[in-house]
Amino acid sequence: MPKPLLSAEAIFDEALRVLAEEGAAGLTIRTLAARLRCSNKTLYQQVGSYEVLVRGVVARAFARLELGFAADAAWEVAAESWCTELRAALLANPDLCTLMTIADRDVVIDHVHRLMAVLERDGFHHSRAVEAGGILAHVTLSMTLSDVAAPGEWDDPRVFATTVRWLVHGMALSRAEDNLRHHDRAGSPRTGRPARRRRNAS
Amino acid sequence: MPKPLLSAEAIFDEALRVLAEEGAAGLTIRTLAARLRCSNKTLYQQVGSYEVLVRGVVARAFARLELGFAADAAWEVAAESWCTELRAALLANPDLCTLMTIADRDVVIDHVHRLMAVLERDGFHHSRAVEAGGILAHVTLSMTLSDVAAPGEWDDPRVFATTVRWLVHGMALSRAEDNLRHHDRAGSPRTGRPARRRRNAS
């Protein structure tokens, strides 16, 4: 049953199946064209280039990832579980990691927004939540892709777990400082007392 | 003046000069053989393979890097400056970053030892200093190589600076916990009082 017209959706769905069944090395224009029963030329015309195909596959694979992180828990727990889940999802999809370049970092943006929502719910200012979401995503992706590319003693899971725990401590301190600063500015008129911290500062 | 015998030192010295003058793309067996006035075959026989040549060049380039970090300052300042200096050295040598793979992480080990010495001087237990040195190196290398490979909004230097600052906060907490635990174990018999923290734990 030859297909007269190939939708982008059909192409990328098939490409994801190829990736799942044959791995990153199996994902070629030739293989994909054969499975879609079209010529290599037709497929090139539809997707533009192999590079575009790969970037689209990575973006779609990420959009489908379910990061079942603990969004209802306190932000510290939620943030740690978000990083752990993202790392686990990457480790479970080594072929995706092989195809993924650091230029693909933006594909996690929807997942980062879900984490940011938890942080803002628990008192992070918006700009701090943006910063923290970016840092947790950057560190998780960089370290995990590194570990997948070069397995060895550096990829001990405890190294990653401690890294995330330390970042969460730092986030807690920044959050507290932000809120103190905000309290200093906003608090005095409301309470009628001078802000304590400022009075004690030398 | 043809050279009858090529020492490994002479080969790698010349390779580092090629890297400095012509960049990563210029470092080929052919170029290097021409500059050393030997045949490609002779050079292959000497170094084994292009891969071995590149790994050797990276290791030597790293051994020569002077990380002028603030080793005499308090550990928090020293650790931040170590990460900043390592990142700056990498950013100043983009050709080295191109050649470097994550498998080359062990080439920083001498630099990590210098950082660990500062941490142990300032009260970190040895195992915690090992852990912290490894994490700071891993995060700095992973993030910086990522940023070099894919420049863009994620490589804002403030992102890296905040990441390191947060890690240092986490290290401070772990150091304090370690020392409290140690005090609990060692303190009671010396002071004759039960360790407070333990008594209050539920």
Automatic annotation (TrEMBL), chains A, B:
This is HTH tetR-type domain-containing protein. Residues 193-202 have a biased composition (Basic residues). Residues 28-47 bind DNA. The lineage of its organism: Bacteria, Bacillati, Actinomycetota, Actinomycetes, Mycobacteriales. Keywords: DNA-binding. It comes from Nocardia aurantia. Residues 5-65 form the HTH tetR-type domain. Residues 179-202 are annotated as: Disordered. Gene3D superfamilies: Tetracycline Repressor, domain 2.
